[in-house]
Automatic annotation (TrEMBL):
<dbReference type="InterPro" id="IPR004881">
    <property type="entry name" value="Ribosome_biogen_GTPase_RsgA"/>
</dbReference>
<dbReference type="InterPro" id="IPR031944">
    <property type="entry name" value="RsgA_N"/>
</dbReference>
<feature type="binding site">
    <location>
        <position position="261"/>
    </location>
    <ligand>
        <name>Zn(2+)</name>
    </ligand>
</feature>
<dbReference type="InterPro" id="IPR027417">
    <property type="entry name" value="P-loop_NTPase"/>
</dbReference>
<feature type="binding site">
    <location>
        <position position="253"/>
    </location>
    <ligand>
        <name>Zn(2+)</name>
    </ligand>
</feature>
<feature type="binding site">
    <location>
        <begin position="112"/>
        <end position="115"/>
    </location>
    <ligand>
        <name>GTP</name>
    </ligand>
</feature>
<dbReference type="InterPro" id="IPR010914">
    <property type="entry name" value="RsgA_GTPase_dom"/>
</dbReference>
<protein>
    <recommendedName>
        <fullName>Small ribosomal subunit biogenesis GTPase RsgA</fullName>
        <ecNumber>3.6.1.-</ecNumber>
    </recommendedName>
</protein>
<dbReference type="InterPro" id="IPR030378">
    <property type="entry name" value="G_CP_dom"/>
</dbReference>
<keyword id="KW-0690">Ribosome biogenesis</keyword>
<feature type="binding site">
    <location>
        <position position="255"/>
    </location>
    <ligand>
        <name>Zn(2+)</name>
    </ligand>
</feature>
<keyword id="KW-0699">rRNA-binding</keyword>
<dbReference type="GO" id="GO:0016787">
    <property type="term" value="F:hydrolase activity"/>
</dbReference>
<dbReference type="Pfam" id="PF03193">
    <property type="entry name" value="RsgA_GTPase"/>
</dbReference>
<dbReference type="Pfam" id="PF16745">
    <property type="entry name" value="RsgA_N"/>
</dbReference>
<comment type="subunit">
    <text>Monomer. Associates with 30S ribosomal subunit, binds 16S rRNA.</text>
</comment>
<feature type="domain" description="CP-type G">
    <location>
        <begin position="63"/>
        <end position="224"/>
    </location>
</feature>
Length: 294
């Protein structure tokens, strides 16, 4: 039995990539009794007696699973946030970051539409946020699909990872995906011609090869409510808080009113940005309100 990865699922078939070959497979075997529904991104064991088709015999355990788009084993999310139109929202960005960290996904922040702020009063504010997120350890990539004719800076990021693009509607996700496509066709002629892109004609997600990695052709991210996050875990998903939370005097410190709180000390010393702490407090409140309602 051989191992491969599902890169496309359509009409009862799973397209399993193994090295640079694609096998059109149907499901068979024990995973169906376990009620496992194979997803794009799944590592699978498959059987094939020829070079074109076969059967999926088993689905490996997943490290994570997105509902929208339905993808398993996502390694990285490129969070696209426009500088303007819509306005840059650190509150929404932090909400995305919490979910991404909670799903064990590596975040990359892409600030799009930089061409629209270059000569405006917004520029400094955006630049300030870019610096702050970089100081927190995040990779931040400013982009413009209008002025950058190549988006080469993305290229090395994709290597050996499964990447999804996420962000609000209108921020430029599709434009970015389209801007990186031409290269992709050159690189992957064999696989992409076999699969056929059929983009936007059908509502299915497909993984495309780019920069020696896989990129989901459909942007998105599962819901951003906090239903799956416990109040006491929230600070784990703010890296600058996570590294301090062990130093609070009280176990189970909520970092809001307890004495000798290492996180509030970090806010006072300026090591934790005020806006990040404010977002933490507002998410915490949201989690508590949710718990009360359910
Ligand atoms: P999506 O909803 O996130 O996929 O956003 P789209 O890619 O559809 O882009 C929304 C609008 O923003 C379109 O009118 C794009 O032409 C425009 N847009 C996208 N990227 C840029 C950019 O870098 N600069 C400028 N000026 N406009 C952009
Ligand atoms: Zn604390």
């Amino acid at each position: 039995m051989t191992e491969g990865r599902i890169v496309k699922a359509l009409a009862g078939f799973y397209y399993v990539m193994d090295q640079d070959q694609i096998f059109q497979c149907r499901g068979r075997g024990n995973f169906r009794k376990r009620k496992v529904n194979p997803l794009v991104g799944d590592w699978v064991e498959y059987e094939s007696s020829n070079k074109t088709d076969g059967y999926i015999m088993d689905v490996k355990e997943r490290k994570n699973e997105l509902v929208r788009p339905p993808i398993a084993n996502v390694d990285q999310a490129i969070l696209v946030f426009s500088a303007v139109q819509p306005d840059f929202s650190p509150l929404l960005l932090d909400r995305f970051l919490v979910h991404i960290e909670a799903n064990d996904i590596l975040p990359v922040i892409c600030v799009s539409k930089m061409d629209l702020v270059e000569e405006t009063s917004e520029y400094e504010k955006i630049q300030m946020y870019i610096e702050k997120y970089r100081d927190l350890g995040y990779e931040v990539i400013p982009t413009s699909t209008k002025t950058d004719d190549s988006l080469e800076m993305f290229y090395p990021l994709f290597k050996d990872k499964l990447t999804v693009f996420a962000g609000q509607s209108g921020v430029g996700k599709s434009s970015l995906l389209n801007a990186i496509n031409p290269e992709l066709m050159l690189e992957t002629n064999e696989i992409s011609s076999h699969l056929g892109r059929g983009k936007h004609t059908t509502r299915h997600v497909e993984l495309i090869l780019f920069g020696n990695g896989l990129v989901a052709d459909t942007p998105g991210f599962s819901s951003l409510d906090f239903l799956n996050i416990e109040a006491e875990d929230l600070s784990k998903f703010f890296p600058e808080m996570n590294e301090r939370r062990g130093d609070c005097k009280f176990r189970g410190c909520s970092h809001t009113s307890e004495p000798k709180c290492a996180i509030r000390a970090g806010v006072e010393s300026g090591e934790i940005p005020d806006f990040r702490y404010e977002h933490y407090v507002s998410f915490l409140q949201e989690i508590k309100d949710q718990k009360r309602r359910y």
